[in-house]
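Appendix B, record 7
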Amino acid sequence: MSGEMKTGGEKKMAENAPPAKVPEGADKLVAPARKSVMLMPGMAAIAIYMLVLAATVVVGVASGRMPAAYLVFSALFIAASFGLMLFLRWAWALALAAAVLLFSLFLWRFSIHREPASLIQGLLNLVFFLYLVRTEVRSKLR
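Structure tokens (predicted):
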């Protein structure tokens, strides 16, 4: 009785039956934007990075370490993040500008303070910039 169960004289197959097959054409039911995001994990990574930056700015303002005017940057990071997930051209431009400015800022901080974390963040922003300017990424934008 390893693969079967007896219940009231009937034999039923155990729940370890093979999974049901996906019907043909089911991949056409997936929204095109969602399918593109699955094919472009770099865009998702950059969007998550922008959200983390936004959260960092909000925490910095709430703790009093940053001026309240920095919340504008946080709002722009959030807008760029959600726009990138929808492959919007204006969000791409905003993320590109943010990557260049943050790259410059972190390399400047590294040159002044010699903080290794600033160098790593600067190089990460350079990688994001180089990813965003790829032809494959630009061709997916609307």
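Remarks on this record: The mean pLDDT is 84. The beta strands are 4-7, 10-13.
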